Amino acid sequence: MKKIIPLAVAGILAACSGDDPGREDTAATATSTQSLAAERTLRTVYPETREGNMVDSYFGTQIADPYRWLEDDRSDETAAWVKAQNKVTFDYLNSIPYRDQLKERLEARWNYEKVGKPFTEGQYTYYYRNDGLQDQYVVWRKKGDGEPEVFLDPNQFSEDGTTSLASLAFSKNGAIAAYAISEGGSDWRKILVIDAKTKEVLEEPLVDVKFSGISWKGNEGFYYSSYDKPEGSELSAKTDQHKLYYHKLGQPQSEDQLVFGGTPEEKRRYVQGYVTEDDRFLVVAGAVSTSGNDLFIRDLSKENAPLVPVVTDFDSDTDVIDNQGSKLYLVTNRDAPNKKVVTVDAAAPAVENWVDLIPETENVLTASTGGGYLFAEYMVDALSKIYQYDYTGKRVREIELPGPGSASSIGGKREEALLYYSFTNYKTPATIFSFDVESGESAVYNESGADFDSDRYESKQVFYKSKDGTRVPMMVTYKKGTELNGKNPTILYGYGGFNISLTPSFSIPNAVWLELGGIYAVPNLRGGGEYGKRWHDAGTKLQKQNVFDDFIAAAEYLIENKYTSSDYLAVRGGSNGGLLVGAVMTQRPDLFKVALPAVGVMDMLRYHTFTAGAGWAYDYGTAEDSKEMFEYLKGYSPVHNVQAGVAYPATLVTTADHDDRVVPAHSFKFAAELQSKQASNAPTLIRIETKAGHGAGTPVSKSIEQYADIFSFTLYNMGVESLSL
């Protein structure tokens, strides 16, 4: 039971892969700079991009925006530009001799059964399963020892697999299910309500739902959140006032009760409502940005009970994670940057009445509940450590994990004696463990079927110093026996924002990269959450350059220690990580051979004018805040820092036409700037996926194609002419 505050985040596809133990390294064999890649770039002719005369004024400074017209996602001219850019990009990609080989390898490694953690609702045990190459995971279930059956198959939602299952929630008795779907990757959702036994649709779908959970009140109805439909394009128009509704089963959506967010005083960009497990309290969390929230509770056992304030400002992140009668259990970073668990009575829940239960430590806490216990997961240099507590705050035990890596939160319902968690790291496919809450014993529930020999790879944590002397951790993963000669193709992946922590996890595409002899490196940059609120804040607003400096220092560390060199180094990131790539490649174009910015926030002067972008101001600030903030943003904004006459790395910008979180206009404008000003023959291409969004719900078939293109582009521009797979 946790609030869901949407973040500008796009992660690596987390899944599993494998290796052929008899194969030698293949990707590290490069030719001279007079390679096929160099010859091909001489023949790359980009579509013409019209330059308009739009000019904006910021504190007396005139800023030209010649590609403003590309922000209109409904215009024929933009559509023609997208089509022309994709033709040039795919003509280039089709010419890479081993692109199809890479696609076949990705398909082969992707093709194994994947099963999620089980959960019980009513008489059934449910779980997510993919038989290998299905575009979307299928929800299966079984009753007792009976035969499993398909409950929901999202692959049947649309012919092309682009409609995905976004969330699923059951009524208290498990008899009714409500599930949200996303069409074409959009953040806008529809909610369907069905009889869980017969799967019969019970009422008309709820529409125009966005950034929402589904939280049931008993068996009567559920809470959800949405915005009023914006004027203009629903994919790019600003959405600013989130509202919480209660939907009673059987009534039309037009009659749903507005619970919070309908008045100017209640204006929040994000609002979530969730019900405690015993149905006693409704918890309402509101936020004006992606960091900090206020908090209210309503006692549902009393008729027409008011919303009672718990937190009245936005200076902390605070959630109710459980209750015992009127006693509330909250996790908060208020006066505790690394978070702690506190208790308070619902009759007087104000901050001054809070009592520490699990005090703050030097490591960042994530708290969960299940089986009548509390679980405290800590990040120790971005690696998991988990402790079990009872409800008096007494530590019961440390849970023994298989090794250094990432464990998912342990959680479940109060009465469940057996809970589940998964464990993974960059070279270990995810394994699901069961956990007995009384004995403390863990047992393998489902071992990954990935054909990957982890013993052939090494994943180690190193520490390096950033420009200002800050100590930054980084995980570096590669095949054992790799010669550190400066010639290893390397992907440096980063994020550095929104309190998001990059903890070790296994993925199929990264495993294939390792198979090829590549190195995969992930630093834990400031702006993330690995060391708590102070670490996050050190990478925000007027300190954002720290994030870029940390990333540049990571690249320099890899080069100095001969893992790679600038001729074999690719830099990659998505969303806020796409901004990271755009910033470092314009600040240090000499440092990287290849740049791979995905769904990036590239126009830092206008990001807050699209969809929910204004909510990112905690991390970025806005160009309207002050002259100082405007000049700071302009100083690193990727769109505004592409300079004529500079040789930029070979660049493959990736985005999608239905991305309504970081609208594709960011990437369009950045690609247009690069193409008009690139001084070298290195290609600057943009790949625009159709019927896809920010990343969630992307069909497996599209993911395989995307990674085949990304990896082949990367290796080709490092001088690799052939692969022996």
Automatic annotation (TrEMBL):
EC class of the enzyme, as a word: hydrolase
Domain Peptidase S9A N-terminal residue range list: 47-447
Entry keyword Hydrolase: yes
Any one Pfam family match given in the protein's UniProt record, by short name: Peptidase_S9_N
Keyword Protease found: yes
Catalytic activity from the UniProt record: Hydrolysis of Pro-|-Xaa >> Ala-|-Xaa in oligopeptides
Keyword terms of this UniProt record: Hydrolase, Protease, Serine protease
Any one GO molecular function term: oligopeptidase activity
UniProt xrefs under InterPro entries: AB_hydrolase_fold (IPR029058), Pept_S9_AS (IPR002471), Pept_S9A_N (IPR023302), Peptidase_S9_cat (IPR001375), Peptidase_S9A (IPR002470), Prolyl_oligopep/macrocyclase (IPR051167)
EC numbers for this chain: 3.4.21.26
GO cellular component entries: cytosol
Family affiliation: Belongs to the peptidase S9A family.
Protein name: prolyl oligopeptidase
Organism: Microbulbifer marinus
